[in-house]
Every structure is written in structure tokens, then in C-alpha cells.
Amino acid sequence: MPTLEAPGERLRKFKYRGKDASMRRQQRIAVSLELRKAKKDEQSLKRRNITDVSPDPSEQQTKGVSLTLPEIINGVNASDPELCFQATQAARKMLSREKNPPLKLIVDAGLIPRLVEFLKSSLHPRLQLEAAWALTNIASGTSELTRAVVDGGAIQPLVELLSSPHMTVCEQAVWALGNIAGDGPKFRDDVIFSDAIPHLLTLVSSSIPVTFLRNIAWTLSNLCRNKNPYPSDHAVKQMLPALFHLLWHPDGEVLSDTCWALSYLTDGCDTRIGQVVDTGVLPRLVELMSSSELNVLTPSLRAVGNIVTGTDHQTQLALDAGILAVLPQLLTHPRSSIQKEAAWALSNVAAGPRQHIQQLIACGVLPPLVAVLENGEFKVQKEAVWTVANFTTGGTVDQLIQLVQAGVLEPLINLLTIPDTKIVLIILDILFFILQAAEKISQKENMCLLIEGLGGIDRIEALQLHENRQIALTALNITERHFSEEEETGTTLPARDQDHEFLKHLTNTYQSSTTPKPGTRPKESLL
């Protein structure tokens, strides 16, 4: 019969936990939730420039001119630079419409090769700007449209425009490259291999307008995004010092995109997490977790949450930086998405050694955790259940008793009626471990009475009839092992087939829904 010190295989399969602390951390990668990202991530992948006002004063001269598509095609293919400019500007205006811009129409008209040519017209910066702007908006469309821009040879000329003496031209090139890199890892790497990063980093200075710096920070974040494959180590090492520098900028948008960049870079193995942690960003990230601006709080919390999926040492660095002074407060944040993310981070701290669990207790996290289990949205309650599960399987008997004294049993028992079979199984396992802990200190009878008084026995017995065989089997074994008359009188029950199936369930409970993810368990979108 399993005891609190359950078989090693069972512990190794229980989320990320094993008796050995390093094994628990390894399980975070191999047997973890993957943060399920919505098709549209929290941070914008691509951005279209729909500004009505051109930075070029000469546009006022052509403001009333509206060209048809055939006229645009003729003008773009003309030999006169002024006609090329007017036609390109007209195309750009069409592409800048707020609703239903004719992106595909312009591509199908075969204009991209000429627009790419215009990027190289250093004697005509106005033409370069309009061409870069048009290509920016085309690249903001579908992957097919972005590919048309890339296949048209736009990346290298755009990278060269990062050295343009004309700031507006330079900024538009940054924007275009950000859209291309945001399409996916293939085009991101094409931008990186075109030596864009050193040129971008040269632009990071206090002398440029904040709007320009926002575009640079956003483009850098897109160069950090995606993990199949990850950006090269060389590229990451190039960008990290600049990201550390930008992390201290006062502008909220710059901070937001910088934090998103760091969250992408920490969404991986321990080595990648270590690259970021070694720059010394943790104290500042923790500080930003207290930001009143949601667009800064969200990615800073995500980055720190990713870091605590790393090694015990990396998690300890996060604890030393003060995350436990912030996370309990975030469990009461008005946005449930933040509560969920905070609970997820806490669950990964609880997956560490007993010293980390003790720090969780000391920081006062148990009362707000219980409150979330009682009253939180279900997506938050699920993460809180995972936190308790890790706490229960890794904590000492004394730590488990403190968990019970905090009032965790009642909301857990109430959640036994939910339709989510995975969470019901986890809660049953939590109750099993708590009963085993109580038995170790001769308090099992009192624990059983407490569970019975909360309606737990009735709910566990009802689950014996559950349509899910694992739930029914687990409920039956808990009842017979801890609440049956035979158990109370000390009668030893003979081994049965369901005992072996129960042990098999304990070993495999957490395998079925685990999707390998760099970093941790599936987090859902923070939207």
C-alpha cells in the first residue's frame, strides 16, 4: 500500500516531482504544461502603419491626388523618379487604409520587385520611405504576403536602411523588419542572418524619439520570439545587453516589449534561462511585477514565471530577488489572468525542495491561495490545485499540517464535483497524501473526522460511481484504505486487481495531458 513516501516512479510522474530535487526540475521540462498561446498572442506579432500624416511635408502637394491601380502600376514602372514617388505614395495610402487594405491586390499587381528597388534609391529618401512603408504594411498581412516581401529580396535592403541618415526612413525599415521577423522562426532567422541585430543595437540611444525606440524594442522582441527553433545563441548574446539597458527605460511600451522579449528567451531549457538570469535582470523584473500598468506587469510576471521553472538555483535567485513579496498580492489582483499566472508561478516554486515550500509558508501565501480555491475563476483554481499538489507531494509532514490548518481541505472537497477529470484525480491524490501524513503523526482519525465533517466522505464515495475508471478506482481505494470499517479495526485487506490498477494510476496520472514545453505546464493565454 502506498505511503506518504510513495514509490519513486510515482513521484517522478507526479507533475515535475521526484524525491530528488534535480529530478523534479527535469520533470518540469519533460512532463509539464505548455503555455497554450492563442493564435493572437498577448503581444502583437505584426503592426500595420495606418498613420494618416506623412512625415514628408511634400505630401501636401499630392494630397488631393488619387491614382487608380493601373495608374499606380504605370507610375511605379516609370523611369521618372517623381512619377515613381507619386505612384508609390498612392500605393502606400491604399495599403494604409484602416479597413480592408488591398494588400494582396498590390502583391498580385507585381509591385514588390519595384518597391524593393526603390529601397536602394539613396538619392531619393522620400521614395525610400514610401517604399519601406508600403512593404511594412504588406508584411503585416498573412504569411503568404510576408513571404512575397521576403522572396522579393526586401530583407537585405531594409537592413541597409538601418544606417540611413534619414531617421524616418530608418524607423520605417525597423518596422518592416519587425513585421517580417514576427511572422515565424524562418523569417526571423533570415533577418538575424542578414546582420540586422548590430544595426538595430546601434540605434538604441537616448537621443532618438521614444516612438522610434518603441519600434526598436518591439522588433527586438520579435527577434527573440518563437522556439521551433529558438533564435541562435549568438543572436541572444548580442541582444541581452541591450534588453537589460531597455529594462530601465521609463516608457511603458518600451518596458512592455522588453519584458516580452525576456519572457520569450526564458521560455526554454535551464541553459536559456541561465543566459537571461546571468545578466542580472531578475531584481528589475521582480520590481516590474508591481507595476500598475498591465502591459508591463503581464510580461514581467511571465518572464519570472518562466525562470522559476528552471533549476533550484535559478528559482532560489528569483526568491532572493523578492518574488514572494509580490506573488501573494497578485493572487488578489482584479484581473483573473494575473491571478492565474501568479498561481502558476507559485506552483513551480512549490515543485522545488522543502526549503522553497517553507519560504512559501513564511511569505503568507496560504490564505490567498485558499481564497482563490474557494472563490476564484476555474482557470485560476486549477493552477491553485497544482500548487497544492506540488506542495503536498514535496512538503514535510509538518508543512502538510500547516496547509490543512490554513483551510485548504474544504475548497478542495467542494471541487470534487467539477467535470474536469484531471483536476478531480489530482485532488483525490492530494487527499490521499494528506491522510498518509496524518497517519505518520497518529492524527489520521482526526483527519478523517475533519474530512467527513466537510462532506468529503460522501463526495469521495459518490466518485466510486464516476464514469471515469481512474477516478472511480482512486475514490474506492481511498475509501477502503482510510474510511472503511475493516481499516478502522485493523483488518488487512487482501491484494486485489484494483490495487494494482490504483498503483498504476498513481504512476501515470500526469502523463496523459502533458505536452512537452520548454519551461513548464500549459499556461493559457493571458487574454
Automatic annotation (TrEMBL):
Region of interest called Disordered, as start-end residue ranges on this chain: 38-64, 507-527
ARM repeat ranges, renumbered to this chain: 110-153, 153-181, 280-322
SMART domains to which the protein is assigned, alphabetical: ARM
Taxonomic superkingdom: Eukaryota
Any one GO CC term of the record: NLS-dependent protein nuclear import complex
SUPFAM superfamilies on file: ARM repeat
PROSITE patterns, per database record: ARM_REPEAT (PS50176), IBB (PS51214)
InterPro entries: ARM-like (IPR011989), ARM-type_fold (IPR016024), Arm_3 (IPR032413), Armadillo (IPR000225), Importin-a_IBB (IPR002652), Importin-a_IBB_sf (IPR036975), Importin_alpha (IPR024931)
Name recorded for this polypeptide: Importin subunit alpha
Family classification: Belongs to the importin alpha family.
GO molecular function: nuclear import signal receptor activity
Annotated function: Functions in nuclear protein import.
Domain IBB: 1-57
GO biological process assignments: protein import into nucleus
Record's compositionally biased regions (Polar residues): 507-517
A Pfam family recorded for this sequence: IBB
Keywords: Protein transport, Repeat, Transport
